[in-house]
Amino acid sequence: MKTPISHLFAVATAAALLGAGTVLAESTVGTGPKFKGPVGLQLYSLRDSFNNDVPGTLDKVKALGFKYVELAGTYGLAPAEFKRMLAERGLVPVAAHFSLDLYQKDIDSIIRDAKTLGVKYVGAAWIPHQGPFTMDLALSTAETFNTIGKAVAAQGLRFYYHNHGYEFQPCLAGTLLDVLIQKTDPSYVTFQMDILWTLFPGQDPAALLLKYPGRWELMHLKDLRKGVKGDLSGGTDVRNDVTLGTGQMDFPAVLKAAQASGVKWYFIEDESPSVEQQVPQSLKFLEQVDW
Prior knowledge:
alpha/beta, two-stranded antiparallel sheet, 11 helices
């Protein structure tokens, strides 16, 4: 029997108030009367522009009104140089993605670069696998996440995992993402919900947020084109990333649940070729969204 979402919402709200941890409300771009953010940009959204002109692309990010950013590389620049360029524009790096392979081969380089960049969070967005994601891999990866999380915590950093859709293989625990969450230590491992990669495999982002209050500290804000049918592949045409509020996502339910469950940081990630036209519209939507 399913637990009513209203009960989950009440439990999540109580947990947040009792210590799941929330960021004090701050007026930033993309926030409004209901949605409080703070909202940043995952710079991977502008990867094509960065590959041609790093300073000019950072100027675009500033012009859009963003203060906070999430990183996925430094586009050929040394971390110290990239940090300098961010600071010159008043851009604050909060989190950065690194490959899981690098964590396992050279975690010291990640810690060094993270400290140079000034980020609080270091994350991973893909678990290498062949064929369907498996229980054995979920269990071994949870152990790996705990080891990584403990190591970076000793250096003042917080490790997170960004779901990508393939983790929702069914199992007795519910899905293999449930296994990853349940088998990782909240003291050392947190999660970033990519809401598109939660909806795409047929899951309910709002219900999942409320199921694990306090475990989701970061979020990727995205929307999935109407009519697109998802699966467990972890991949879809980038043109299926559409302006927030124009696709399949129930944003009032998702954002309400996110605020209740203790999400601290929200980053727009728009992988579409229309990103520069869509992001301003997405920000306007977030500023006006109501529930």
